[in-house]
Amino acid sequence: MERLFLRNDRETKEILTMKEKQFGFGIIGAGVISNIHAMAISAIDNARLIGVYSINKSKSNAFADKNNCTAYNTLDEMLNVSEIDIVCICTPSGIHLEPAIKCIEAGKHCLIEKPLEVTLEKCDRIIDAAYKAGVKIGVIFPSRFYEASKQIKKSIDEKRFGDLVLGDAYVKWHRSPEYYKSSAWRGTWEFDGGGALMNQGIHSVDLLQWYMGSVESVQSVTANIRHKEIEVEDTVVSTLKFTNGALGTIECSTAVFPGALKRIEIMGTAGTAILEESGLTKWQFEKKTSEDEMIMNSMLGASISHGGVSNPADISFTGHQRQIEDMLHSLKTGDKPLVDGIEGRKSVEIVLAIYESARTGKMVRLPTFK
User: Which of 91, 323, 358, 370 has CB atoms 3.0–4.6 Å from 220's, for a disulfide?
Assistant: First the structure.
């Protein structure tokens, strides 16, 4: 009977571990991507969606009813809720700065939908504010969190590819004219930050630089072939030179029909991997290991999402769930999130360099990432 009252240190630690902290979440914005965040949060045992704020009251009320949370009348009202630890910012791309700064100043950690912001100056303001306030920020790039994506990165770090030779990204999607008409911010420089590349292709830009390393220079062309009503490009082609000497290409469009799964090709002097959405279609190395057969059997063609090829809502919440779990892990351990503000800034810099090259018709050099 004495054991019921006296516990050793190990037992006490186990009990405390079982009683994990519940992390409260708020969401800013009530559009399509906000629902993906809500589903991801609901799938995590120690996470709870507490509330939502949107300038569109009818949308926030409908979102709150659907997700069993509170619709707040003002952002300040939501940020005053002490149970909210983390805020997911799901506003249009060019409207991330103001809510991010408010959340940071309120002591809330932030998960910000891609891109971090649409200019480097705005990105830097968010990063600096978070550093000064001592809060964590993460930028949503769920493609990094799929098993096949992580396996490629692991094998690159282990030098299995030999010297990297080519890194290519292909995002050839379909968006209807109705997609751009559905919200006034879509297809604008001010609020979308660009077109097919900044909005749809940036996921692949992030993966490409994660795998291949920093970009030294880009040479690019853009066009608007189908969506004449928007300010920005619907098609872009760019060649890249990486600082390690490798070369690459990016092809991105929202003008093609019916569209295809996004594809990343990584090729080196000793190996090749091709990632199609979240599954592998090729995994071949000069020097095989005992794990290769398992990897091929479990990941070849193992895509768990249509990736929003022709419908932006047709995506899995699994990548978001894993990225949110990564943020929770970082809060428990003090480690950096895998995609913190500095990581999230890198893809914005590359995209803006590609746009500058297309605008000027010249090669644009980038600073080496530190």
Answer: 358
Q: Retrieve residue 53's tokens.
A: 């704020």
Contact in structure between 39 and 313 (CB atoms under 8 Å): no
Question: Looking at the chain, how many residues does it have?
Answer: 370
Give the single-character DSSP code of 244: T
Pick from 273, 276, 204: nearest CA to 240: 204
Q: Using one digit for the tens of pLDDT, what is the confidence trace for 209-245?
A: 999 999 999 999 999 999 999 999 999 999 999 999 9
CA distance 353 to 213: 16
Give the whole-angstrom CA distance, residue 354 versus residue 358.
6
> What CATH class does 2-142 carry?
alpha beta
Q: How many other CB atoms are there within 10 angstroms of residue 128's CB atom?
A: 12
CB 89 within 8 A of CB 103: yes
pTM of the entire predicted model: 0.92
Chain centroid offset of residue 74 CA: 27
